[in-house]
Structures are given as C-alpha cells and as structure tokens.
Design brief:
five-stranded mixed beta sheet, Four Helix Bundle (Hemerythrin (Met), subunit A), mainly alpha, single chain
C-alpha cells in the first residue's frame, strides 16, 4: 500500500524550496521504503527530520540517492536514533560535496557515531598513516608499495566528515570554532606526514639521505585551519649522518615535490588542498628546501618585516621533529626582536592596507577574510600587538589567534570588553567561512549573493532567514572594523616598538640605567615611583608596565621629568581604579603623550588635574578641550547657585565651574587646541559666569539679612583684561559695580544695599575653600579706593560729567557689562560712550597727561629690584607699553573712527592700522610684542603654578617657560635673547607713537 503524498503546502511550510520535487522524491521506492522503516507516519517523520537541515531539498536528494542502497551504513544511521542521525542530516543539508562522498562510500557514515569531542592529533596521524600501510611508530614512516594517493584522500575525507558532522549539528557553532580549526590543522599535519610516507616509498632507499622537516605556517601552523584552504609550509633539510649537504638537499627537494603532488593531486576521490611554499625565504624564486643554517642566515640578513610576522605561527607538522625544532630555535628569536626594526609598525600597517586594496571592488562588501571588518582585521590586530609587546612578555607568544587574544586581554594589553567583542566577531566570521566552504568543499571567503545560497548559509549558521544573516554580517563587520582601527593603529605601538627590548621589559636594572641616561635628577626617587606603579600582579600594574617605558621617555623630553613622573603617580593613584583611565592611556597614544607633556611642562595644569582627576579623560580628543559657550556656562552656574541655599556653598559651586573651565583651558592650551585669543575668551567667559553666580548668591545673602524685595537693581561692569576678553590664568577680575534704585526706593537705601551686595560678592568669590578664589578688584571706580564701592547710574553720570580725569576715560575703553541686570549694563555702556570716545579727541594737555601718567606707572609700579627688561607687563616694550599706545590712539580718534570702538587691544590695533593711524610695520611690531609678552606671561603661570610677570633668571625655569613657548630643548638662553629682541623693537615704536620721542637723546633718557 502506497503512503499518501505529503501535501506541497506542508512541505513549503517545513522549509522545502521546491515542494513539488520533494513530493516526487518522497514517493520514489527507495525513499518510501526508508521512510517506512522509521515507523508509523514514517514519511512525516522523515520530512520533519530533513526540515531541520540547512537545505532540506538538498538533504532529501541525498537521502534518495543513499536509499538506493538499502542496508548500507548510511541508511542504517538514518533509521537509527541518536546524535549520528542528527549529524548525518546536518551534513547532507549543508555540504553537497560530503553528500556525494557518502553516496560513493556509504560505509564512511560509521564515523558519525564517534564521541562528540576533538580527535587527538596522534590518532589522526596514526589513522592516515595506517591507511597507506605505514607504521605510525616509525621515526620515518614509509607507505606500502600498493598504497595510492586515493587511500590518503579517502582517509582524509572520512575524517572531515566526522568533524563536519559534529560541527554542523552543534546548535551554537561559535563555541566550537577553536576546536574545529585545531582539528583541521592536525588533520592537515597528519595528511602531510602521510604524503611524506608515500614520497619516501617512491624515492626509495635514497630517502634516508635527507632529514626533512615540514613546518606549518599560517593557519596550519596556528592550528586554526579552514575546511578548505591552502596549507602553507616551509621545508627544512639536514643531511643524514655521513651524507653530503648537496645530496641531502637534492633528495629533500624531491621528497617535498612528491609530498605536494600527493596533497594537491586530483582524482575521482577529489583533492586535499594545494601545498603553498611561497612563505619560504625568497618566495617562489628561492630554493624549495634549505638547511637550518641557510634559513638562519637569510633571516639575519635579508628577511623583510612581513616574513617575521609569518614566522609567528610556525610549528613542526611533519617529518623530522629534531630538525624542525632546530629550525624554530634558530628563527624564533628573530620574531620577537623584529618589532625593533626601523618603521616596523608602519610597515605592518601598510601591508594590511595593501591587502585590503587588492580585494576586487565587487567583493569588498562581501569578503569575510580580506575585506574591511573581516578576519584579517582581527588577525593583523592581534599579530601586531603580539609582535610589539611579545618582545618583553612571553605570555603573548602563541601562534593561535584566539589564544593570543585571550592572553592580550588577560595581561592588560587589550580591554576585556574589546577582546570579548573581537573574539565574538572572529568566531562568527569563522563559522560563516566554514559553512560557505563546506557547501562544495571549495576555497572561498566571499559571502554569496544567490538567494538559495544565502538561505542555506543562514540556516547552517543557526539564523532565521537571510535578512537576519545580512543584518548580523553588517553589524559584525562594522564592529570588527571599529575595533581593528582602534587597536591596529594604536599610537602607542610605534613608541613601544622603538624601545630596546631591555627598555620595553622595564626590569629594575634596565629602568635604573635608563632613568640615568634620560636625565632624571633623582633616579632613586623615580625608581620608587616606578615600583609603586608597576609592582604586583594586578591588571593595573600590568598595564602600567606597558605604559611606563614609553612614558619615561616622554617625561624625559619635558623640562622636568621628575615632577612629571611624580604627578603621574599621584594621578594614577587617584584614577587607577577607574575603568577608563589606564585603558585610555594604553589605547590612545595621543592622550598618553598629551598627559606626559602636560605633567612635565606645567605645574598649574598638573595641580588642576590633581584637584579634578576625572578631567584627564578630556585628553582623548579635542572636543572636550574646546571652551564651553559663555551662555552655557552662565546657565550652568545659575543652576548650581540656585541649588545651594547657603551663599557660601553657592559661591563655592560657582567657583568649581570656573576651576573646571580653567582646567579645560589650560589642557587645551598645552595640547595646542587653543591659541592666545582662545585662551583669553575661555577664561573671560568662565570669570563672567562666576561673577554672575557670585552676584546672585550675594543678592540672596543680603536679602536674607535686610528682607525682600531688595530696593536696588545691580550690574557688574568688567574692566581691564576682563572687559577686553584678554584674561590670563592669574588675572584678577577688575570691575565696576553699578546700581539703580527700584521704583519707590530711596537713594540712601539703595546705596547702602548695593555696597553691601558688592562687598558680599568680593567676600564670597575670594572666600576660603578648595576651589580657586577670584579676586574681585573695584579699584578702577571713580575716586579709586576712596570712592563708594557701588554707584548709581546717575552718580556715575554726574561724576564723569564734572570730575573725571583722562585716566578714567582710558580705563573705560575696556568697560563691558559682564553680570547682573542687562538693561542696567546697557544703560551704563550708553552713558560712557561719550566719555571714552570723546568726539573731539584729546587736546595737547590731555595727551601730555597720558604720557606723564604712563611714565609714573613705569617708575612707581615696577617691583623693587626687578630688572625692567624682564617684566613682561610693565617693562619696556611689554604688555602695558602696547596697550597704552593703542589706548592713546583710541582716545584721540575713536570719536571719529568707529572701528576703534572695541575693548580688544589687538582689535583696536588692527582698526588703527586699517584707518592709517599706525603704519603697517609698526602695527606688526606692536602686535607681535603684545602676543609674545602675553604668551610669556601665560607660560610663566603655567610653568610655576603661581602668578608672576617676571621672566626668571634660573636656567631650569627659563627652560620650562621656553618649552611652553614651543622652543626646542636647550633654549633657556635663546628665550632671554628673543624676549629682549621683540620688546626692544616694540619699545622703539612705543617711544615714537606714545611718547612722541623722535631723537636719540630722548630715547636714551628713557632707557636711563
């Protein structure tokens, strides 16, 4: 009785792509008989069994062919129970080539019953050798006379079937990738040994003249071979006792060629794989076999960088084990010194780019092996890290990608998260590669485009459809590429590679010698810091041992390496327990080098970082070093002040924001992100924000004492460098306080409250606490320190109309509202326009008054005992000279020339030049001097960590300031000369434009 046909609709739902053909195959006598052996509803059970295959249609076609031989081992596996049947169905649905082999040799199905565990290498070797009649116990096995290459091919294919069955039936194939690659590599080694046994048989007695060792390279050497791949080998020959070298080489070459023929030859039983010897010295142009000494000589004298990278995976796979070991002993040391070759890292990186560039454009987005985000990205990343760091760390010297990646993570060279992501990507890409190759047992690494192939691949990889396959492929590709670029182009690699092997190891003896050679003043103290940072077995200590050899050199390039190392230790003790700090320094060489330069070059920046160590993460890039917009800072300060009911706490929170922005600015300045103007604007914006916050806190504090609402509106007007957006790191905040009584309030009440508020602002912002204080200086107010701390708008108007002097008009040139009531600030600006920009300029008496005042300032305000030529602010040709010259021009001409109406010194100078009030050459000299002296002034504070305007005489301090100005090492004397040259030229211009001195006598009197 014929079983009813399975409906095509049901077959389609069970995954059959051609239900009609499946229906016909199920009805064939052999298939139907096989189904009946499965019991009641046998056809349904067979359909259900095949539906689990990657390609149910292909599996059914193979079953129909196998069923023609009822009672064969393959059929018995199908009708049996247990894992063997699952493996057989998986194979039949995933590999047409293995299915064809089973049809020819159904008895091979017996291997599918083997335990689900890796087959030991010795068993593989013995099985293949016995297959050609050779004795595995022999030191040099020889095949039987009647053995053929087909015996080898059949035995090899049977072992592939066993492995593929276990692999394809695994529901989580990624976990098996390492075992699969290792077993395939061991199987290849067994095949090479067996092919060599056949070759010995063919050569006859002469074979004993040559002791031939076969070294596996590439994936074979690393025990991570694919199902179908070229097998890279190198042949090494030594003569047997009493044999001439030339004869041994000739015999060895004959054996090597025969070995390759047996492996790559083709017959009805198929082929194994090509034996690729291109990695031998001189490649295809070199001799096929060499002695150990010949190999050693080549690698010592001629080998290129890529050849050492290839040697990383070398291992003995066949032939004479002693000769193979001698070869490894001879060449392995060169592998772990190769990174010290000039340009090594760049050469390896360029090699990866060349490999990628040769991928055909149509394959680039589908290449699992060579394309962006493919297997080569993982392998090159791991190998470069191994070669650079493996010189000093033997833990990294594995030829297997996954084992090496584990070691890199375990010993801190790669973060665990990055290593885990890279491993997952690698494993999944290898699964895809294996599944694609198994389909037809062809050497391919390209993701297919045909829908049927994609569907089979997705199911073989355990995914639900082609869309899921494409999505995961693109995600994996992007993630692997991102990690590759982070690790492979890690800037620190080049610096580590340039170290000697001893320096890279950072042994105590090497460290002491290096510290002395690098110029550390206190090598013993530096050693204590090194021991504290790198001692022990913690992951943190391991990463520090990677970083410190390079950092020591970078510290030594700075002006004070000892201070840099000490600051680094203190910073590391604060941050070493965080997840990002050491990882950032290890993975981002830019950040590490920036930190080293900062810690050795600036006590101010080091102190600021130690107050807020988390700011070190800004060093990773430039984005965090860009100053925050003024409006954003005002909003932030307003929010933190509002959260603190206590005025002191509110002011301290506002000062904390300023300290943070000072840190950002200093780091950005030292990292080259900010120029002089950028520093001035950034520090001004932070100071304006803290003044706004301080005023808010003070208003609240006074209101708590006198009651609300307060009878006054207030504004703070910035003066001097604050108003000109030209603050430096140690600048005070020069201000005027302006108030207006509210409607109905008396002048006296408003005045009293305004003075109380201004006093509170000064107290709160200068107050004690961990945050840097801000000196709020109101000395530029009318009547100076003798006048009221705050004035009403009308009081200012009366004063300026009746009593103001030229110096007060000059001070107002840089007046700009910076905090408080914006309408009041705008009203003040309108009020003083006519004062600071007089319509008729200055008369002769007023010009003389400006000149006289400037001369008095030079005479009275210079600190006693200081050489005027070393004072960057008040000295001849310094900041004050340039500013007074520009301000005189503004007072004389801004009434008529509107472009002069700016609070910026350089902006006003440029406007004066444009208006023809200053010659181009004079303007250039003044601009240069002002910039130079301002940069020196900032460098003085950055270097010393304290406010000073005097160029030091101490050589070490001069050297530190010179470095901050971008001058090379040893520029202490050159800094003095450069400063005098620039200021001398500027002073000559100032004497003409400001003092009106045109003859030599007057200039000489000025110098005296």
């Amino acid at each position: 009785m014929t079983a009813p046909a399975v409906p095509t609709g049901l077959l389609a739902r069970r995954g059959f792509a051609d239900p009609a053909a499946a229906q016909r195959l199920l009805a064939e006598p052999g298939t139907a008989a096989l189904a009946r052996r499965l019991g009641d509803e046998g056809v349904d059970r067979l359909v259900g069994l095949l539906a689990r295959a990657a390609d149910p249609d292909a599996a059914l076609r193979a079953v129909a062919r196998l069923a023609e031989h009822d009672g064969s081992p393959a059929v018995e596996v199908l009708v049996g129970e247990g894992p063997a049947r699952e493996r057989l169905v998986a194979v039949l649905g995933a590999s047409a080539a293995l299915a064809d082999g089973l049809v020819r040799h159904p008895g091979d199905a017996a291997v599918l019953h083997e335990p689900d565990e890796p087959v030991p290498p010795g068993r593989l070797r013995a099985e293949l050798l016995r297959g050609v009649g050779a004795d595995p116990a022999d030191a040099a096995p020889v095949a039987a006379e009647d053995a053929t290459g087909d015996d080898l091919r059949r035995a090899y294919r049977r072992r592939v079937l066993s492995l593929a069955g276990r692999d394809l039936a695994d529901p989580v194939p990624e976990r098996r990738v390492g075992d699969v690659g290792a077993e395939l590599a061991d199987l290849a080694a067994a095949a090479l040994e067996t092919a060599l046994a056949l070759a010995r048989r063919d050569v006859g007695e002469d074979a004993s003249a040559a002791r031939l060792a076969v070294l596996g390279m590439g994936k074979c050497g690393g025990r991570e071979l694919n199902y179908v791949s070229d097998v890279d080998v190198v042949h090494v020959v030594e003569p047997a006792e009493g044999v001439e070298v030339d004869r041994a080489l000739a015999v060895g070459e004959k054996l090597a060629r025969l070995l390759a023929t047996y492996c790559s030859g083709y017959s009805a039983e198929g082929t194994l794989w090509p034996v690729d010897t291109a990695l031998r010295p001189e490649g295809g142009a070199g001799p096929l076999v060499r002695t150990v000494d010949s190999h050693r000589a080549y690698y010592e004298r001629w080998a290129e960088t890529w050849e050492f990278q290839a040697l990383l995976k070398a291992r003995v796979v066949a032939g004479d084990a002693e000769v193979g070991a001698a070869y490894l002993d001879a060449v392995r040391p060169a592998v772990w010194t190769a990174a010290g070759r000039t340009g090594f890292v760049g050469t390896v990186q360029a090699m990866r780019r060349r490999v990628e560039a040769h991928v055909p454009a149509k394959e680039a987005g589908r290449q699992l092996k060579l394309g962006p985000g493919g297997l080569r990205d993982v392998e090159f990343s791991v190998q470069l890290l191994q070669l650079v760091h493996g010189r000093s760390d033997p833990h990294l010297r594995s030829g297997t990608t996954l084992a090496a990646l584990d070691a890199l993570a375990a010993y801190g060279y790669v973060s665990r998260a990055d290593a885990g992501a890279l491993e997952r990507g690698y494993r999944w890409l290898r699964v895809l590669e294996h599944r694609i190759q198994l389909a037809r047992l062809t050497r391919t690494h390209v993701l297919p485009t045909a829908e049927d192939d994609l569907r089979r691949l997705a199911r073989a990889a355990g995914l639900d459809g082609t869309a899921a396959l494409e999505e995961r492929w693109q995600e994996t590709r992007a993630r692997v590429r991102r990690l590759h670029e982070r690790l492979f182009y890690r800037p620190l690699l080049g610096a580590v590679a340039r170290l000697s092997t001893e320096d890279a190891r950072l042994s105590p003896e090497a460290a002491r010698a290096r510290l002395q050679a690098l110029g550390y003043r206190d090598p013993a103290g530096a050693m204590r810091h090194l021991e504290a940072l790198s001692g022990g077995v913690s992951r943190r200590a391991a990463i520090q041992r990677q970083l410190l050899p390079v950092l020591l050199g970078w510290f030594a390039d700075g002006a004070d390496p000892d201070a840099g190392l000490l600051s680094f230790r203190r910073l590391s003790e604060s941050l070493g327990g965080t997840h990002w700090y050491l990882q950032m320094l290890r993975d981002d060489g830019v950040a590490a080098e920036r930190l080293a330069n900062l810690l050795t070059g600036s006590r101010l920046a080091a102190d600021l970082l130690l107050q807020a160590p988390e700011a070190a993460r800004w060093l990773e890039g430039d984005s965090e070093l860009v100053p925050r917009p003024a409006a954003q800072l005002r909003a932030e300060v307003g929010a933190v002040v509002a959260r603190h009911r206590d005025p002191v706490g509110a002011a301290m929170a506002a000062r904390a924001v300023r300290r943070r922005e000072m840190t950002r600015t200093a780091v950005g300045d030292l990292s080259g992100v900010l120029d002089l103007e950028g520093v001035g604007h950034a520090l001004t914006a932070a100071t304006q924000a803290v003044l706004q916050g301080g005023l808010a806190a003070a208003l609240r504090s006074v209101a708590a004492r006198v009651g609300e609402p307060l009878p006054v509106r207030m504004a703070v007007v910035g003066m001097g460098r604050l108003g000109g957006h030209e603050l430096t790191y140690a600048s005070d905040a020069d201000v005027l306080f302006v108030h207006e009584p509210r409607e109905g309030a008396s002048e006296a009440d408003a005045q009293g409250v305004a003075v109380a508020v201004a006093t509170e602002v000064q107290r709160l912002l200068k107050g004690l606490g961990p945050e840097p204080p801000l000196e709020v200086d109101a000395a530029l107010r009318p009547e100076g320190r003798q006048g009221p701390l705050s004035r009403s708008l009308s009081s200012f108007a009366t004063y300026y109309r009746r009593w103001s002097d030229v110096w007060e008009a000059q001070a107002l040139l840089r007046a700009e509202p910076v905090a408080g009531d914006p309408e009041l600030g705008a009203a003040f600006t309108a009020l003083v326009e006519g004062v600071r920009y007089p319509a008729d300029g200055l008369d002769d008496a007023q010009v003389r008054q400006v000149r006289t005042t400037k001369a008095r300032v030079e005479a009275e305000r210079l600190p006693r005992g200081v050489d005027p030529r070393r004072h960057v602010k008040l000295g001849p040709g310094g900041i004050s000279d340039v500013e007074w010259t520009v301000q005189l021009l503004q007072l004389q001409h801004a009434g008529a020339v509107r472009s002069l109406r700016t609070t910026s010194t350089l902006g006003a100078l440029a406007a004066a030049r444009e208006a023809g009030l200053v010659g181009a050459e004079d303007a250039e000299v003044l601009d240069d001097a002002w910039r130079w002296c301002s940069r020196v002034r900032a460098a003085l504070v950055l270097w010393s960590g304290r406010p000073t305007d005097v160029v030091p005489t101490d050589v070490d301090d001069l050297e530190g300031v010179a470095r901050l100005l971008g001058m090379p090492a040893g520029s202490a004397g050159a800094l003095d000369d450069e400063h005098r040259r620039r200021t001398r030229r500027a002073r000559a211009v100032v004497e003409r434009l400001l003092f009106g001195w045109d003859d030599a006598d007057e200039r000489g009197a000025s110098d005296r």
